[in-house]
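Bumping my old thread because nobody answered last time. Still need a sequence for this structure:
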């Protein structure tokens, strides 16, 4: 009789237990939180409203909503476009509702006072300076609103019985509101058109480009109906 012997070999298995530890988390300093890491159009949050006055006056009321982000900033500068004349500014801190001090100065005065204006200016440039309520602290922002009236006969005028608005927009979000009693007859740019509760016509234009877009529109007075 043959006897079969079975040999069983046990192989030792060593288990390595590794303690799970959380991955290190990135810590954002206030300075890093205050920076704008994105430069594309979608990130920009400035909104501009143009409320057209009587076309005979060539005037329109502009409202800028702007977020101040730079730590230590004390001012907001609005350099008036060449060919336009500014009057009646108003500045408001939208975070608190507080009215802010403002002044209109020339480019020459700005240079003499060594104000940190990043836009190119000339001696005869008009600049609206808004004084912030306090210097911006690190890691914070400040939303403000500047309102002012421009007069510019080259970009806003009457052509026969129609008003003409012919102006370039460099910002992302722009709204043009026609004077009361006027309706749109022509528009050379894609836009969203709506009638506001007060009856005025609103033209909302988005400029997704990194340069300026020309906005050309025409409008007529609504016919007067006899009662």
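Sorry it took so long. Here it is:
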């Amino acid at each position: 009789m043959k006897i079969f012997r079975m040999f069983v070999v046990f192989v030792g298995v060593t288990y390595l237990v590794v303690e799970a530890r959380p991955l290190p988390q990135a810590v954002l300093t206030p300075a890093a939180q205050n920076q704008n890491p994105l430069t594309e159009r979608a990130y920009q949050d400035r909104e501009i409203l143009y409320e057209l006055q009587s076309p005979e006056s060539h005037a329109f009321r502009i409202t800028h909503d702007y977020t101040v982000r730079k730590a230590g900033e004390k001012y907001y500068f609005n350099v008036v476009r060449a060919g336009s004349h500014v009057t009646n500014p108003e500045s408001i801190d939208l975070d608190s509702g507080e009215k802010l001090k403002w002044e209109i100065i020339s480019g020459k005065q700005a240079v003499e006072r060594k104000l940190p204006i990043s836009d190119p200016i000339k001696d005869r440039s008009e600049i609206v300076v808004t004084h912030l309520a306090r210097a911006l602290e690190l890691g914070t922002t400040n939303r403000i609103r500047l309102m002012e009236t421009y007069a510019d006969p080259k970009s806003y005028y009457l052509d026969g019985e129609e008003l003409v608005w012919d102006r370039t927009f460099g910002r992302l979000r722009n709204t043009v509101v026609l004077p009361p009693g006027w309706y749109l007859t022509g528009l050379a740019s894609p836009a969203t058109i709506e009638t506001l509760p007060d009856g005025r016509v609103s033209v909302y234009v988005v400029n997704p480009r990194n340069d300026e877009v020309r906005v050309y529109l025409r409008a007529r007075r609504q016919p007067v109906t006899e009662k």
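Residues 107-112 form the longest helix (6 residues). Let me know if any region looks off to you.
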